[in-house]
Amino acid sequence: MNYDAVFDKWHEECGVFGIYDRHLDVARYTYWGLFALQHRGQESAGIAVTNGDDIELAKNMGLLTEAIKELPKLKGHIATGHVRYSTTGSNSPRNIQPLVIHYQDGHMGVAHNGNLTNALAIRRQLEDDGSVFQTTMDSEVIVNLIARSKAATIEDRIVEAVNKIEGAYSIVINTTNALIGIRDPHGYRPLCLGKTEHGYVLASETCALDVIKAEFIRHIEPGEMVIINDEGVRSRIYAPVEKIEKKLCVFEYIYFARSDSNIDGQSVYETRLNMGRELARETKYDADIVMSIPDSGTTAALGYARESGIPFAEGLIKNRYSGRTFIKPNQEERELAVRMKLNAVPEVVAGKRIVLIDDSIVRGTTSGLIVKMLKEAGAKEVYMCISSPAIEYSCHYGIDTSVRKELIAATHTVEQIREYIKADKLHYLTQEGLCRAITNLESHEMCFACFDGDYAVAVPEEQEEGVKYVLE
């Protein structure tokens, strides 16, 4: 399992970044952009730079600062970058992106965010036709389809390739003479366009534009491809109209995106405040303080406090230097790992009725330990509030998810979960409340499949129970 087992969170697969600018050190700017997107992927990082004639790649395992010790030396004007969590394929050096290939018409670097639901079927077909794969990622399927296309131009090759794949993808590609961004017909994963003084930028989130002082222009639309070169930016709707149906992953607002980002016209920070306000309206709990499990529940907790009038307090302190902690072999060590990351403040919590806010419960392994910690510190009662509906179904569109049987809400009622984590009360935000919190989008424009099992893109039988696409 690749998610942080102690904090029991789902993780987004990765973040992508691209820049086209003949006046900037594009490798350095890509590094800064990826630094802003580090929350989207902490397993590996890579940067590919091209000057049109040659391409150079720097990549390695680990955080960006560990992975990229030395930037590409090639003085180019186009670059793509990637930070990764693995959802398909193993956590291995050979799976680091961008993927760089050389083919008969030149070279390209490809960075992909998302997960393809039909990748395994396409890969088997390509292998039967003689294709050789170097990685276990679904992203390499895209590269092979582009390279094998007989279309006249690289742009048409890409269109032909992406019209064969299904699932979630935001892709940034640097060719010999262009930077290209593609968003799938449902827009599951975000992608935005920004402008530097002499060029343009593509990024998973607007926070990456802010860090390099690029001006935000707009979000790429579902089913759209943008082509950036010396002539500027050109848009092309590549997907058939009947296939375009916006279904942005709602977890971008709940947890994945940085609070200072704007996703498809909606402030993430304001959305999380609204989620807390909706929780307060739905529960109307009589309590002494509102707290969060830092940092995932903090903004929603502030919203709850403002709406309810109950004061916000920092009753849990997070150790920001503990790093990622993986699954522990027994309950005692798991509890120790939680205490390495979080500690209760007795002076704040003792004798208090606490509204405790978090964004989600996946397997329930952490929530109970935190409730126990607060009770041991003297809390009188703990009312757990979750700023999303209960997660009952696996995600197949780019989230590092448990198989369905491991999702506690798939096999337990809310009351059973409350008893399991030993909270005095437990409330999940309703789907209606979540929709009210996201003011800029209609409910039909978001994907709620992990809550209700309504998958907009068909899921192959071998993936229905959350089986990972792993080929080795």
From TrEMBL:
Recorded name of the encoding gene: purF
Alphabetic keyword roster: 4Fe-4S, Glutamine amidotransferase, Glycosyltransferase, Iron, Iron-sulfur, Magnesium, Metal-binding, Purine biosynthesis, Transferase
InterPro entries: GATase_2_dom (IPR017932), Ntn_hydrolases_N (IPR029055), PRTase-like (IPR029057), PRTase_dom (IPR000836), PurF (IPR005854), PurF_N (IPR035584)
Residues that bind Mg(2+): 296, 358-359
Enzyme superclass (EC): transferase
Cofactor(s) listed: [4Fe-4S] cluster; Mg(2+)
Catalytic residues (positions): 14 (nucleophile)
Pathway(s) this gene product operates in, as recorded in its UniProt entry: Purine metabolism; IMP biosynthesis via de novo pathway; N(1)-(5-phospho-D-ribosyl)glycinamide from 5-phospho-alpha-D-ribose 1-diphosphate: step 1/2
Protein name, UniProt field: Amidophosphoribosyltransferase
Note on cofactor: Binds 1 [4Fe-4S] cluster per subunit.
Molecular-function GO terms, alphabetical: amidophosphoribosyltransferase activity
Function: Catalyzes the formation of phosphoribosylamine from phosphoribosylpyrophosphate (PRPP) and glutamine.
HAMAP family: PurF (MF_01931)
Family: In the C-terminal section; belongs to the purine/pyrimidine phosphoribosyltransferase family.
EC number in record: 2.4.2.14
Enzymatic reactions: 5-phospho-beta-D-ribosylamine + L-glutamate + diphosphate = 5-phospho-alpha-D-ribose 1-diphosphate + L-glutamine + H2O
Domain Glutamine amidotransferase type-2: 14-231
